[in-house]
Amino acid sequence: MDAHPAAAQVDQARANLEAALTLLQCCLRAGVRLVVLCPGSRSGPLAVAAGLLERCGLELITAIDERSAAFFALGHGRATGQPVAVITTSGTAVANLLPAVVEADYGAIPLLVLSADRPARLKGCGANQTVNQETFLVDSVRWQGAADPAGLHAMAPKALEALAHQAIGACLGGEGQAPGPVHLNLPLEEPLHGNGQALAALLELADQSAAPGPRSPIAPIPVVPEALQLLDPDRPGLIVAGPWRGLPQHWPGFVDALRQLQRRTGWPLLADALSALRGTPGLALVAGYDLLLAEEQPELRASQILRLGPVPASRRLQTFLQRCAGSQVLISEGEPRSLDAVGCATVYCGTGLASWWEQVSLAWGGGCPTEETLDFNRRWLGRDQALQAWLDRQLASPETPSAGGFNEPALVRTLSRLLPPALPLVLANSSPVRDWESFMPSDAPARPVFSFRGASGIDGTLSLACGVAQAEGAAVLITGDLALLHDANGWLWLQQLGGRLTVVLIDNGGGGIFEQLPIRPDPERLLDFERLFAMPQAVDPLALAAAHGVPGRQPADAQALAADLAWALEQPMALLRLVTDRRSDAAQRQALRTMGAAMPERP
Known about the structure:
By secondary structure, the chain is of the alpha/beta class. The strands form 4 sheets. The protein has a 6-stranded parallel sheet, sandwiched between helices. The relative contact order is 0.11.
């Protein structure tokens, strides 16, 4: 009498497994290469399917912390331009994904969330671990899809295929959207876990997985006519390149178009450190604009500006752009949402620079820069050369004898020249990303630079860097102490990481960024700055890393730094702790800004 119910349960479990396998096979064919799996029972069929598909080319990595898993996937997605799938169980597991999904949204990074859920019959009746998880991410995703409310098993293979392809298409952008996150909420009916017979049958189905097919081409975005007409190549102008936010496959065409544009116009390029353009051969580039630009410098203004991507974080540059009267054409790499934070773009164009240049170069025809433009170019480049030589003298050593540690502005110049060319660099938000914009020299070798400035959080700093290292084979993370501690679970990636990661910790005993803001009162006793803002933590970062099996060193001077960095770069994962003094460094930054703007035109 009990045989029929038992058989029905076996059939149900097998149906769940087959549906999960079909869905993930479709994701694999559509371009998903990596799955990050978090633990759970409700997501069991998805976990089994992912494990089986490893034999078919799917890369699988596991994580106990959903927040860390999502940021790892985000770093990998930024580096590769391809969506990474994150599988979670139901309940609060889904809520832990929100910070990474927000960054994926504003950073235009492809990310696929696959969350297991209870079927509709268990919703709204007090069933355990049943929450309104389908609404947790809805405001930050490109598209939200769901399986049949009765359960994933109730969907036909064609329906599962359509669900997967719509999700991947939305992740990759197109049809007026930038790449970004997608959430598929997948109800699963019990029983969830099949027996050996069901798994054996699934092995045969898994072997039928086909190689990924070609991605359907996205229709090009037409160039706004005004974006072709508002700039005159025969008059002086400026190019301002903000943080790179395009897909990596578009990078070579972007750089090639930029070189051709400069050869035709002679316009100097003001390039944010996060643009990854500094050190790129063939570009007339200004790195020190943040220090050069004072309140009033009309001789550096241009009546036409081509802006590429988001505006750099420099407040001085933002004010400068607002003071420049004339045309400002803003071009993004396929981002239809406005990136004009300073509110002075004359026209916005989301076609990408390569597409824009292809059309505008035909309209402009041949030619070379005018003498007036070359004079303007020499004015900018001469001042930057003088500034860079002056900074080298001012910051000749990364050490700060009076503080007994290292000097943060000097460290930027030292590290940017010490790190091997082409080695990917990840910059944490707050002080590191701002210091690299202001103090990174223009002669440092070119390298990929990653920072996650869409929402500019510090939530998953270490996990993001691990995702980049996994995708690129190696990476270096420059981070502050609070950002690193905020993602301490990121050290757990050591056990599975396929690439090398060197973590350079700038340890200034708390939130150093707050020292650069006008917060401390005079007299200081009126406010407990340390407790309310800096928030130093009594944690030994080297001991914390060592507890996870990550070796570390604390170099005492520049000579030791060079040797220890060479050692760290050879380790699977390593930590270098560089101790600095945030108060003295903040004072030095202010002094450099005051003096830098008064530099003469030539060295």
